Amino acid sequence: MKMPTASAARRRTGLLFFRRISHNERNFHPLKGDFMFFATTLAGSTELAILVKLLLAALAGAILGIEREKHGRPAGLRTHLLVALGSCLMMVVSEAFFLKYGDLPGTGVVRLDPGRAAAQIITGIGFLGAGVIIKEGFTVRGLTTAACLWVAAGVGMAFGMGLFIAGTIATILSLLALIFLKQLEPLIQKDRYLHLSITANSEPDIYPTLERLFAERKLRISDIEADLDLTTQCIRYRFIITQHKERIGRELSQIIAEIDGVKKIHYQ
């Protein structure tokens, strides 16, 4: 069966038309014999199909953004909506370039690769995601929001290429992960890390006392640093302690404060 051309696809009427792009047609898909379906026209109109793609991408981005907005994250409703919408628009433009100039000979000066747009979108989202990751002391925040922005871009790209089912499923799965998996996290037993900084006189050395104290409470030292100030003859220990009990920092600092020579304690 002869596959319809792009111009024939635009003239064809019906509720929804999917164009089959095979390996033999334009070498678009790398696996011979496999094929993918892309929504080209909607009710016989290419413009309507583009409108639906943009609206669905904006809706999916808004759904993900509302969940982040609810938790007071810096990248919320508007950011996710714009990321998904912009990604969709870039894919639509990339597809339009390919359909318009895709018949150019591959040996010419101009070579079109629609995959480049997707690659550049991912690169741009990487910079945007880095902007929402915040390091406060020893705590890193914003990783989930950055990942959500990355997914929003992917969803927008899927809708932009007409992969409505893939975009919808990805949106639903992402929303389930953001809402329901958070409820399961307290049920998972995981290591917690206490960052403890202690400043004390260099003589006598309090490290053996601290080591015994941690061992008695079954606290494991994951990392340790020590700085000696020759001017004040004070030493500062920085510990990263693995613990299973929550909020042990206050209790532990009160015990350490009773050790002779301790001048300052900071924990997080």
Automatic annotation (TrEMBL):
GO cellular component assignments: plasma membrane
Subcellular location: Cell membrane
Origin: domain of life: Bacteria
Keywords from the named record: Cell membrane, Membrane, Transmembrane, Transmembrane helix
Main localization category: membrane
Residues that span the membrane, as ranges: 35-65, 77-97, 117-135, 147-180
Pfam families for the chain: MgtC
Domain named MgtC/SapB/SrpB/YhiD N-terminal: residues: 54-185
Membrane topology recorded in Swiss-Prot or TrEMBL: Multi-pass membrane protein
Similarity section: Belongs to the MgtC/SapB family.
Name of the protein described by the UniProt record: MgtC/SapB family protein
Origin organism lineage: Bacteria, Pseudomonadati, Thermodesulfobacteriota, Desulfuromonadia, Desulfuromonadales
